[in-house]
Design a protein that fits this description.
three-stranded antiparallel beta sheet; six-stranded parallel beta sheet; alpha/beta; thymidine kinase activity; DNA synthesis; elongated; 11 strands; EC 2.7.1.21; single chain; Rossmann fold; cytoplasm; transferase; 5 helices
């Protein structure tokens, strides 16, 4: 039975690696996958999903104004799709998440979305909020804080290394910009002091 999945985590947890491995498993069995990634994130090149461990694959891109139902229906004219994989799913709009849900429900094609849950201020991305609300299954891709606890938050550093506590929600970057932390160390880094005993 087809489902809408949301695999979420903080930065540098290996979401793209997991996506690429899952797509490879389908391809290895002779099935056809359709990979999508956000046009806004061109760190690996536009239309490319890449992991930090060196594996990558070509993907179609989406932008916030596109209708993903139409995009998938057009792609189906070229041949069967066994599963759809969406990288950088936090950049989906709420409407696009519903479009993906309709693809699952009406075309019975599974859709696996991979993305960040929260931004550097601890706030949900619109695409992530919609996926958390309507996905059939959610799976956390885990990574750890420098203290060894599970990282659930991320901080953004400015070029001079200071932690940013304001700014635009979207700023493309990697290890040079973002650090994944547990909630306690996120609070410390952003100046949320401890409660006095």
């Amino acid at each position: 039975m087809a489902k809408l999945y949301f695999h979420y985590s903080t930065m540098n947890a290996g979401k793209s690696t997991v996506l690429l491995q899952a797509s490879h498993n389908y391809l290895e069995r002779g099935m056809k996958t359709y990979l999508l990634t956000a046009a806004i994130d061109g760190r690996a090149g536009v239309g490319r999903i890449a992991s930090r461990i060196g594996i990558s694959a070509e993907a179609d891109v989406f932008n916030p104004l596109e209708n993903l139902q139409e995009k998938v229906l057009n792609r189906l004219k070229e041949g069967e799709i066994t599963c759809i994989f969406v990288d950088e799913a936090q950049f989906l709009t709420e409407d696009q998440v519903w479009q993906l849900a309709r693809i699952v429900d009406d075309l019975t094609i599974p859709v696996m979305c991979y993305g960040l849950r929260v931004d550097f201020l601890g706030k949900l991305f619109p695409g992530s909020a919609a996926l958390l609300a309507i996905a059939d299954e959610m799976r956390e891709v885990r990574t750890i804080c420098h203290c060894g606890k599970k990282a659930t938050m991320v901080i953004r550093k400015s070029p001079d290394g200071t932690v940013q506590t304001s700014g635009n929600q979207v700023q493309i970057g990697g290890n040079e910009t973002y650090i994944s932390l547990c909630r306690r160390h996120f609070r410390e880094a952003t100046g949320d002091t401890k409660i006095a005993p």
